[in-house]
Amino acid sequence: MPEGDTIYRSAAALRTALVGKTVTRFEAERLTGPSPRVHAAVESVDSHGKHLEITFDDGIVLHTHMRITGAWHLYRHGQKWKKRRHLARVIIETEEWIAVAFSAPIVETYRELDQSRHPRAGRLGPDLIRADADLHECAARLFHYDKPEATVAEALLDQRVMSGIGNVYRCEVLWACGVHPWAPMKNVPQSTCLDLVLTSAGMLRANLETPVRITAPDVPGGLAVYGRNGQKCVRCGDIIRLQKMGEMARLLYWCPGCQTGCEPYPERDDSDEIARATDPHPAGSQFVSDIIRHRSA
């Protein structure tokens, strides 16, 4: 699944191949928005978290979001494509290169002067890949998350908090910080929020220049928990679990042995104990029923 570091590298490759070059062909089936004209020049290619934008000199901005399935590829003319033609959502050709966005769920354009009207504007959190990203702002957004009952694992994927975190980094960051994935945000202290943000930024930035994602250098494969379900945790020796989480049923890898920070505990229901300890007189029964009624009110 493409995450912030993957999109960053895609943008860097597209920038090298396309910026300053004239478009000889632009094709995008089911495009939302106006198409850039043929013979327009590419002015810039930028990544913002998991978003990628290509700006043309006619004022059109192409915005793509890869989500789970999408990927940008670069090919020389005559080179065989690695994916089937019908999966191509965007094709941009120049004299030297062909840039193809495969299976991208979001492909849309808008005019540069209308950026304030674009639905992405003002909603994304700081991009963790950028050196000037305000990490304390990210921590504040996480600490004051607008859904206090949501789990910390869900909040980490919310791009309004910070941009660039995907499922792999989510699992690795929670393990590195020793935080229980199902901890509700209302129970996560500010210091832990800052730790999660700093760890996320560090992992993303450490992987900008390499296609092989490494978050735990001492672990075979480079990942501490992701993809290691059923194996022993290198930190505590417990068995790494795999569970589905959220509406999208995303796969979450975690270690129940050492990820105990902010661990949620079920609320205790001691109504039966009260009932057993109370005099069986009718007045006692009424007393118990009143307590239970007030608790549920």
Structure characterization notes:
With 297 residues, the chain is α+β, with helices and mostly antiparallel strands. The protein has 3 domains: 4-117, N-terminal domain of MutM-like DNA repair proteins (Alpha-Beta Barrel), CATH 3.20.190.10; 135-254, Helicase, Ruva Protein, domain 3, CATH 1.10.8.50; 272-297, no CATH class. Helices cover 27% and strands 19% of the residues. The chain contains 7 helices and 10 strands. The strands form 3 sheets. A 4-stranded antiparallel beta sheet has the order 1-6-7-5, with helices on one face. A 4-stranded antiparallel beta sheet has the order 2-3-4-8, covered by helices on one side. It has a two-stranded antiparallel ribbon with strand order 9-10. A hairpin with a 3-residue loop joins strand 6 and strand 7 (97-102). Helix 2 crosses helix 5 (190-206) and helix 4 (167-177) packs across helix 5. It starts with a helix and ends with a helix.
Summarize the structure.
With 297 residues, this protein is of the alpha+beta class. It has seven helices and ten strands. It folds into three domains: 4-117, N-terminal domain of MutM-like DNA repair proteins, CATH 3.20.190.10; 135-254, Helicase, Ruva Protein, domain 3 (Orthogonal Bundle); 272-297, no CATH class.
Fill in the keyword field for this structure:
four-stranded antiparallel beta sheet; Helicase, Ruva Protein, domain 3; 10 strands; N-terminal domain of MutM-like DNA repair proteins; 297 residues; 19% strand; 3 domains; alpha+beta
